[in-house]
Amino acid sequence: MIPLVALALAEQPPELGIVAFSRGYDAAAARAKAEGKLGRVEGVTSTRTGFVKGREVVEVTHAGDVKALDAAAAARGYSALSGALSPSLDDDKKQLQGTRFRFVPLTPLQKTRINAGVRDGEKWLSPRQLERLRSGSRDVLQVDDVVEAWATSAR
Known about the structure:
By secondary structure, the chain is an alpha+beta fold. The chain has 2 domains: 16-87, Alpha-Beta Plaits (2-Layer Sandwich), CATH 3.30.70; 94-154, no CATH class. The protein has helices spanning 4-9, 28-39, 66-75, 94-97, 108-116, 127-135, 146-154; strands at residues 17-22, 44-52, 55-62, 79-81, 86-87.
């Protein structure tokens, strides 16, 4: 069995699809909840919150069958919406913002999986990341590149 941290740190497939999902109502709390729910779907590699055409959405990057993703999203009450995303950094990874995970350099997949289940988040971390979880003091949650996040967190 491959450890979860190995899966989280593995190189992601080059062919990724990006779909934005909306539920038809606007609320930051609902967007954060949607980000967590959609982040649990198999094949999802990252999520971002924001706006498309004035509607609050969760943008989902996925590897795999888009029909399966659409079905999983529909089962949770979400429908696809196309258009350019205007990110909402204040709401992105809301579940991580008040936790010690914000001090840990994470890959997009790790951010997505941990945001979807903070209580079990440590299982996605390497030993070095676990150490940073205990001792880190510089917020690197909004740093997208994991290498840059490590450099920033060490300053």
